[in-house]
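Let's practice the habit of predicting before peeking. Look at the sequence and jot down your guess about where helices and strands might fall. Then scroll down.
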Amino acid sequence: MFQVIKNVTSDSLVRLLVPNAIAGIILSFPIWDMYLAEVDGFESKSLWLPFFIIVVLYGGLIAANISIGN
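Done guessing? Here is the structure:
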């Protein structure tokens, strides 16, 4: 699969991500059926705390990058 993607694009990141994403999607179905099929439901949790943490971390990194670059 890596050779097929190599012929399509020259971008290394795409050549790494596309085959791994396809394999991950294909393998997720048997794994789900074998190990997680009996899971009926899950408790939903709030999205806001992880979202806030990501915004603060990336915002801080972007601000630091801007201040160091100038």
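How did you do? The longest helix spans residues 12-35.
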